Every structure is written in structure tokens, then in C-alpha cells.
Amino acid sequence: MLGRAFIDEPMIQWPLGGAGDVATVTTMFSTLYETPIGQGLVYEAGDAEGVAVWVPPGGGAALLEADVGSRDRYGPLTLDGGARYGALWSWVESHLPSEPLWYLDALAVDPSRQAKGIGGALLRFGLELGERDGTGAFLETSRERNVGYYERFGFRVVDEGDAPGGGPHIWFMRR
Description:
The two termini are 27 Å apart. The chain is of the alpha+beta class. It has helices at 2-5, 10-13, 22-38, 60-74, 83-93, 118-133, 144-151; strands at 42-45, 50-55, 102-109, 137-141, 156-162, 169-174.
């Protein structure tokens, strides 16, 4: 499902050199999320109709460790041995806030199930977790159309820019 949902995502395709097919994108996500799934950070709606990866305050180190630890496995998936991937995500990480926030690492809905409220339910679920412990939320997106979607849930753009080396434009949003 993640491969189908993110097939045209600039933050995914650019590191893959634009050559990422559904199988490649799916492999990338399987590699990245094998550790976070075991830590209870991945939330599923229905039977893989949608997925949200909500990282609690202080839990970012585990996700970062899983990402960095998997980067050598991404190399064969890319055209440049993973150099763009490493550069992009190091740059994104440099924009992450230092204070405790819930971090939405991914929100995806199967393309056949989009516009049915699944993404909104997964988003509200994570925002309620933050409200319960009195913290906000943070995310980034490289799809301009997503900016307005997230704004409807109270997020605001706090920074934006082009990733180095000709990478995609990314909006950093906070609630």
C-alpha cells in the first residue's frame, strides 16, 4: 500500500533518481519500517487501507537509528548508491525541531480508498495523542497540495526550502 500511495511523492522519487516503481518504493518502506513496526509506531486503518507513522516525543532517535542503519540497503535501490537519499534525509533531519513533539513520519492511504476519510482519521488519531500529553505535532511534505490539507487540521508552515543538490521543495509544518 505504501508503494502505491507514495509512487509519485517527490521526496521518494528524487532519491531514487526518478526510477522508483511500486515494488522499489514498497521495498524502501519495508526496510525503513521493519524496526518501527515492532515498536508500535505504525498505525494501520482497516486492512492496509491506510497507514500513519506517528513517532512520540523522544522517540525520534529510534526512527533515525532505523533509517541510518538501513541506508546501506537503500543503495541498490537507487541510481547513485544512496547518495541522494542520505543527503536529502540529513537535510530534512536538520530542520526537525528540538522540542518534544509528535512527528508524523508518514501518512498514506491506498489510492483506491483516498477521499473517504481514512487519512483524516489517522491524522486525528495522532493529534489526539499529542493533545493528551500536551504536545504539538510536526511533519514535512513535498506535495504542495498537501499543505492545504494539513492546514485544515491546524498545521502551519514554519519553514520551507529546496533540498540540496536539486532536490524537491519541502514544506515543514507544525501544529
